[in-house]
Every structure is written in C-alpha cells, then in structure tokens.
C-alpha cells in the first residue's frame, strides 16, 4: 500500500476543510469521507459539496489530486445516541462534565469505517480534525485515543494505517493561520463563506467569521478563534 494516498474525514466544517487542504498540500492522492447520522446541522453536509467544488475551482493543482468523495449513511448512530445533535434538546453540560452534543465514541467509529473504505481503495493515511486544545472534553478527540485506535485498526485489518491529526495541538486561531499558510486568502475565503460549523445549522447571516447563530459553542469557538487570528495578523 502506498503512503502517499490519504482519506480525509470531511464534514464540511472549518476544521475538516483545513485538514483537507493540509492533505492536498502533502499527498499525491486524496479522497474524502463523510458520515450522515441524522445530525441536526444537516446544512453542514450540504456545505461539503460546496467546499469541494470551490477548492476544485480555485486550486487546480489540488483538484488534480482530489479523488472520490464517499458518503456513509450512519443512521444507526443517531438512533443509539441521545444527544443534542440528533434530538431536539438544548445543548447543555451533562453530569459527566461533557457538552451533550457528544455522540459517545463517534470518532472511534468514524476512523474504523474510514479505514475500512481506505483498505479497499488503497488509502493508508486517515486524516481527521480531532483536537485536544479546543476539544470541549470529548475523550475521543484525545491524541492517546487516536494513537490507540491507529494501532487497533492496523492490527485488526492486518494493514498499516497512519492516522494524522494536523489540528491536535493547535487552537482555532492557529487553525485559521494554518489554512492561510496552505491556501492564502483564497482558502480562508472558502472556509469563511462555504464551510459550516454552527450546531444549529443557521446560515441566514454572514458574520466576519462566517455563517452561524453566533451563540452555540461551535460558533463561539469559531468566532473567538477568528478574532484572535485577525488580531495576531494585525499585530
Ligand atoms: Zn451556532
């Protein structure tokens, strides 16, 4: 198996769009995978296609490396998860100290399924936007979790996989800086206008940091990160 072929966990959000650019900058062939588990922000899944098309339009060199997009129906995950993303309940902290947007073990499942697809398509590098810095306490975003999963999946499939997490140790402001380093203003414009992060799926109003309700935890992180990045560039 070649180690220059990657599969990016791509949701259409800011983080996974940055991960996609990171992979396109580095690997000869890049495919994308998305999961539909009945999330309330279905608008994010629609954003996937818009972002992919914009990248193809604006970055011809990357377009030549960008291969198939895989969409996996994970309705079962929505059924076994009682969370604010998949049910009409308010986003709040649970007694365990986690926001109830948490779908238990979600990333473990995503990485395993991605590797299954990768196995069949000769893609040995899985790229995900997991991050310990702004991770809201999700244990399946931790570096140790991902490394353990890389070992388990490689052993379980009898095939060496590498799980890359370029955002693991950077915050949201540094994620903007990374995107700008990779694709300049053209890429940050795509992320601002086409990517979607808001938990409530709000896209009515464009803010300086993109579309969203401006109040949910995802919007607050995105907004604060963007403002810190703009200030750091101006400084
Ligand atoms: Zn929001």
Can you characterise this structure?
There is one protein chain. With 235 residues, the protein is of the alpha/beta class. Helix content is 49%, strand content 13%. It has eight helices and seven strands. It has helices at 14-26, 42-58, 60-65, 75-80, 106-121, 143-157, 172-194, 217-234; strands spanning 5-9, 29-36, 66-73, 125-127, 162-164, 206-207, 210-211. The strands form two sheets. A five-stranded parallel sheet has the order 3-2-1-4-5, with helices on both faces. A two-stranded antiparallel sheet has the order 6-7. Helix 6 (143-157) links the parallel strand 4 and strand 5. Helix 5 crosses helix 6. The model has no long low-confidence stretch (mean pLDDT 88). The structure holds zinc ion (ZN). Zinc ion is lined by residues 198-200, 202, 212-213, 216, 218-219. The site of zinc ion has 9 residues, from helix 8.
Topology:
Layout: E1 5-9, H1 14-26, E2 29-36, H2 42-58, H3 60-65, E3 66-73, H4 75-80, H5 106-121, E4 125-127, H6 143-157, E5 162-164, H7 172-194, E6 206-207, E7 210-211, H8 217-234
Parallel strand pairs: 1-2, 1-4, 2-3, 4-5
Antiparallel strand pairs: 6-7
Helix pairs in contact: 1-7, 2-7, 5-6, 7-8
Bound molecules: zinc ion.
Residues 198-200, 202, 212-213, 216, 218-219 line the site of zinc ion (ZN).
Low-confidence stretches: none
> How far from one another are the termini?
46 Å
SSE order, one letter for each helix or strand: EHEHHEHHEHEHEEH
Give the beta-strand count: 7
What small molecules accompany the polymer chains?
zinc ion
Q: Based on helices, strands and strand pairing, what is the structural class?
A: alpha/beta
Rg measurement, Å: 17 Å
**Average of per-residue pLDDT values:** 88
Beta-strand fraction estimate: 5-15%
Shape: globular
Count of separate DSSP helical elements: 8
Largest sheet: 5 strands, parallel
- Strands ordered across the widest β-sheet: 3-2-1-4-5
How much helical structure, as a percent, in the residues?
Answer: 40-55%
